[in-house]
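Appendix B. Raw example, untouched.
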Amino acid sequence: MNSKPVVLVVDNDPQILESLYSSLSLQGYNVVIANNYQKVQEILEKSVINLIILEPNMPVASGLDFCKIIRNTSNAPIIFLSTTDKEENKVLALNSVADDYIVKPFSINELMARIRAILRRKNKNNTGNKILVVGSLRVDLDNSEILFGDNRVQLSPTELRLLKHLMNNAGKVMRYQVLLEAGWGVTPSQHIDCVRVYVNQIRNKIEIDKKNPRYIKTIHGVGYTFVD
C-alpha cells in the first residue's frame, strides 16, 4: 500500500503545473494535475486526495464556488495559489473554504513548508481526542461536526482549527501568536487582528451572549482561553 500523500494541483498555467509536479514529486508526494474543473471532479470521484493546490481565478467558475462543490466529495485541505493579493479576497477565501492562501509569484520552499504544516495538523487531529464536549458544545474531530445544543454549527476550516486548538487546551491562555500558528500554519502573514476577527465569528455561532461569552474568554493584550 502506497503511503505517500497525494496532492492534486489545479491550474490553467502549464508552467505552474509542470513546476509543481516536478517539485512535489521530488519531495516524495504523489502528484495529480488538472487544468480545468471538470477534470478535478473526475479525479475526486476516482481517487483519494490528501491535499489540493488550487488557482481560484480560472475561467468558467469561481474558485470559491467550485470549492463548495469539492467539499461535497472531499475534505482534503485546500491551498489557494492566486495572483490576487487583495486582503478582502484572502479573508473571504480563508473564512469560507480555503485552508491557506499563497500569492503568485511564490517561493517553492514556503509552499512546501505550508503543505507540511497543513498535513501535520491534519494527522495530529486524526490521532488526538476524537470527540470534545464542553457544556452544550460538542465537536466531533473525525467528521468535523460541531453541535451546539441540538443545532449543527457550520464553521470555516480556519474557524474549526482555532476552536479545536482552544478546546484541546481548555483552561490555558492561548497567546495570539500561538493561535496564528494553529490557524494558519508556519510564518503567518496575518496580523493578530485576524485572530480577533475569527474568534468573534466563532462566538457568533457558539455563544448565546457573545458580549458575555461562556466558552471563549478574552485575556486582554494576551490572547484567549477556553473555559472548561
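End of appendix B.
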